[in-house]
Write a structure and sequence with these properties.
Distance between the termini: 34 Å
CATH class: Alpha Beta
Radius of gyration: 18 Å
Number of strands: 13
Structural class: alpha/beta
Length: 336
């Protein structure tokens, strides 16, 4: 694998920092077309295919045209914070090729909402494929006023987003996951949903943690449904899943080790939601490393599938690889 993927020859952080340049060069050789398979429309948004870029890949919305050229069915940019911040210091990334596992403790490195606005504002609408904007809080913002950071990003970026992802599930911003706890969740989410209804009218999506218990997951689904969220992402990175991996204790693990957990959270969510899932958007993310992995998530009941680790271990042609395999699938498997 490493012989045909030169970015795997270098340390993970160096490869990450160089990837935008490689991506622009590679995508510039591709035609601007989006593969069409399992297309559907949701909330007026047209998804030509259900395979998209996960949050954390394009943190500042600087590679959108490249992802379109490469065939992504939708793009999630961010996590973006109100003010620019560098993220965590020290070692922040690592990978394990044998297990196709990634580790990171980057901590929302962001050039800030104003920079994101500059990148999104010039894009013609409707967008070639939907753009989700993932928003978070600055590291220095206390949890008591975290809501203000999210409201700021909502107001700043809603005009340019097709949907907004509320990220309170990252393990890499100190204390952030406290907001997912039942005693805080309703009071945190309700003002965001109310402001969105009154001012922005964009679909709100909640990104959930793989480390939640079934009871916590059920509560998060019930609360977010009650206040008016329209979808969920299952899941963010995990603070566990380190067996056999020489990763630090801090930070989050994704890629191959996360696959089973991500699938189980999707299944549990479908069970909890039952008929209430009609009209809602369920997005599966975590451990999707092959076309068959993507098809499996769709067959389990996901509406959309996101990839991050696959772009590292399989390369930026992954969207086209999956589209080619989709063309070979029996029609009944990929019929909406």
């Amino acid at each position: 694998m490493i012989l045909t993927k030169p970015w795997l020859w270098v340390p993970s952080r160096m490869a990450h920092d160089l990837s935008p340049y490689f991506l622009q060069l590679y995508a510039g050789l591709k035609a601007r077309r989006t593969p069409t398979w399992k297309s559907f429309t949701w909330q007026g948004l047209e998804f030509k295919n259900p395979l998209g870029v996960a949050g954390g890949v394009d943190k500042d919305g600087e590679q959108i045209q490249a992802w379109w050229n490469l065939g992504a069915g939708f793009i999630e940019v961010g996590t973006v914070t109100p003010q620019a911040q560098p993220g965590n210091s020290g070692q922040t990334m690592s990978r394990n090729l044998a297990r196709q596992a990634l580790w990171n403790r980057m901590g929302f490195p962001s050039r800030g909402a104003q920079h994101m606005e500059k990148n999104l504002a010039p894009l013609s609408e409707p967008h070639l494929t939907p753009i989700f904007v993932n928003i978070g809080k600055n590291a220095r913002t206390p949890l008591e006023t975290a809501q203000d950071d999210y409201l700021y990003c909502l107001r700043k970026l809603s005009p340019y987003a097709d949907a907004l992802v509320i990220n309170i599930s990252s393990p890499n911003t100190a204390g952030l996951r406290e907001l997912l706890k039942p005693q805080y969740l309703h009071s945190f989410l309700q003002p965001l949903a109310e402001a969105n209804r009154n001012e922005f009218a964009r679909p709100l999506i909640l990104k959930l943690s793989p480390d939640m218990s079934d009871e916590e997951l059920e509560t998060a689904l019930e609360v977010s449904l009650e206040v008016g969220f329209e979808g969920w992402i299952f899941t963010n990175t995990s603070t566990g899943l380190r067996e056999g991996l020489a990763f630090p204790k801090e930070g989050g693990v994704s890629g191959g080790p996360l696959a089973l957990c991500a699938k189980n959270k999707l299944k549990k969510a479908l069970e909890v939601l039952g008929p209430r899932r009609r009209g809602k958007l369920l997005i599966s993310c975590g451990g999707v490393l092959s076309p068959e992995d993507a098809f499996e998530r769709l067959e389990l009941g996901a509406d959309l599938v996101q990839v991050y680790s696959a772009l590292v271990f399989c390369g930026p042609s992954f969207f086209q690889q999956v589209a080619k395999q989709a063309a070979l699938k029996p029609p009944e498997v990929l019929t909406p």
